[in-house]
Specification:
30% strand, 5 strands, 110 residues, Rossmann fold, 27% helix, single chain
């Protein structure tokens, strides 16, 4: 199993700083990269684990924290919080969609 490094990061997105979680192989890059889009629950342990699994396979994996630290396990809270729409808008504003791939569950918008 490859050694990896993980860290909380921030990066410029649409004129402000976007927090995120980065996992990458240990050592000198550059590495191929993937953006891991969180589910509507937020940047939870599962999404961080997905990033770590990509890193063990040789990728730098970044999960933007679209809800800025808020996490839930309750469907009603996730749906009614309004965070789903804000999160998707923040993600789309931060990406060059012509040069970006993504994987993850769809974020439901009410």
């Amino acid at each position: 199993m490859a050694d990896i490094l993980t860290e909380r990061v921030s990066f410029p997105a649409n004129g402000e700083e976007m927090p995120g979680y980065l996992a990458r192989p240990e050592g000198d890059g550059p590495f191929p990269g993937v953006i891991v889009v969180q589910e509507w629950w937020g940047l939870d342990d599962h999404i961080q684990d997905v990033c770590r699994r990509f890193a063990r396979e040789g990728y730098a994996a970044l999960a933007p924290d679209l809800y800025r630290g808020k996490v839930t396990s309750e469907p009603d809270e996730a749906e009614s919080s309004g965070l789903t729409v804000l999160g998707e808008a923040a993600l789309l504003a931060a990406l060059d969609r012509a040069r970006t791939g993504r994987m993850g569950e769809p974020i439901k918008a009410s």
